[in-house]
Amino acid sequence: MAWPAIVSAIASVIALVISGFALFQTHQNREQTKELFEEARKPYVIAYIQSQQIKKSLFWNLVIKNFGGTGTYITSVEANPSLSGEYIPLKNNPFSAMHHQLIAPGQSYKATIAVSENNTRNRNLPDKIKSLIVEGHSVDKINLSTTAFKLKIDLKDFDGTTHSETFDLDIGSALSLVTFFND
Which of 19, 103, 119, 157 is deepest in the core (most CB within 10 A)? Predict the structure, then answer.
């Protein structure tokens, strides 16, 4: 076999290997792009505590919001331990009746779960919360049976995929974020 034929065969093998590698890379890039596209369109349902001051009271809202790019169905919401309050009667949680409820991108559901009175002398609060309050302000009590709880949200996507999200929420921790508390 002559040198030109050997060089040509080697060049063909090298070209075949490079083409195979390029094909493999293209396939990998396509899969990653598909994954990123699906991830960007996925619903991201988050639960958090939000406070709202009205006159001398703080209202504590439980918020469920979809920050994702597509909607999903909330099939159930469960709090553990169950929430119950003095002023606002709750049975487990305000969202316990949600079964197959659509939550669109950017949409949120909000319900008041507790009220803090800001007109007494802080006598009923735990010491760790009392230490956060700025001198001259007061929050007597949070009318909720527990300040810390887990919220489990079961979801079903449009394609039938089901998944759950669990959030550890604590109104006591959220108290430190209110403007009349110390940094």
Answer: 103
**Closest CA relative to residue 43, chosen from 26, 65, 59, 20:** 65
Q: Which residue has the higher pLDDT, 119 or 125?
A: 125
Beta-carbon neighbour count of residue 110 at 10 Å? Answer: 14
- Per-residue model confidence as pLDDT tens digits over 36-48: 887 777 899 999 9
**What is the rounded distance in angstroms from the CA atom of residue 67 to the CA atom of residue 107?**
8
Q: Is the pLDDT of residue 31 over 70?
A: yes
Residue 67: per-residue pLDDT: 93
How does 118-155 read in b/e, with b if 16+ C-beta sit within 10 Å? Answer: beeeeeebeeebeebbeeeebbeebbbeebebebebbb
**Angle at the Cα of 173 (from 171 to 175), degrees rounded to 5?**
70
Rounded to whole angstroms, the Cα distance separating 77 from 171 reads: 18
pLDDT band at residue 137 using 50, 70 and 90 as cut-offs:
very low
